[in-house]
Write a structure and sequence with these properties.
single chain, 139 residues, Alpha-Beta Plaits, four-stranded antiparallel beta sheet, 4 strands, binds adenosine-3',5'-cyclic-monophosphate
């Protein structure tokens, strides 16, 4: 059964372009409740750990460099069917393939600088949320 929480990061490109408020507005308008949120900057070790599943991929070093080059906004979101609905809201990984009106279509520049992260499963949502937040930061 689907849990009701997912994890997101607004990536450094979103903060650099001043899109934090606009993206959070979209998330709220789509019916997600923010149950945890912080602005933070990942260290190289953080990013290597968070994206460990991709460490054999040719884009891994660029991904780590991008994700550590400036602050991010990390959040845990609550809504019925959260993981799947959030992935629909953000659109395809490659913004050129993302549906009209999705966050990546509106705010992302490329496959690598794609504005937001969204967990791909309930299991990863729980792991990723716990990576960034302690129990007392989640409401
Ligand atoms: P996300 O799905 O948040 O997590 C993995 C990230 O790796 C993905 O977003 C992209 O930012 C990046 N990524 C995935 N595939 C590629 C690719 N082919 N080239 C560059 N970056 C990629």
């Amino acid at each position: 059964m689907a849990t009701n929480r997912t994890f997101t990061m607004l990536k450094p490109d979103s903060l650099e372009k001043g899109n934090t408020g606009s993206i959070l507005e979209k998330i709220n308008a789509a019916g997600f409740k923010i149950v945890a949120m912080k602005q933070t900057q990942m260290t190289v070790r953080d990013a290597q750990t968070f994206y460990a599943v991709h460490n054999e991929r040719p884009f891994f070093n660029d991904l780590v460099e991008f994700m550590t080059r400036g602050p991010i906004v990390a959040a845990i979101l609550e809504k019925e069917n959260a993981v799947e609905d959030f992935r629909t809201l953000i659109g395809a990984t490659n913004p050129e393939e993302a549906a009209e009106g999705t966050i990546r279509k509106l705010f992302a520049d490329s496959m690598s600088e794609n504005a937001v992260h969204g967990s791909d499963s309930d299991e990863n949502a729980a792991i990723e949320g716990a990576f960034h937040f302690s129990g007392r930061e989640v409401f």
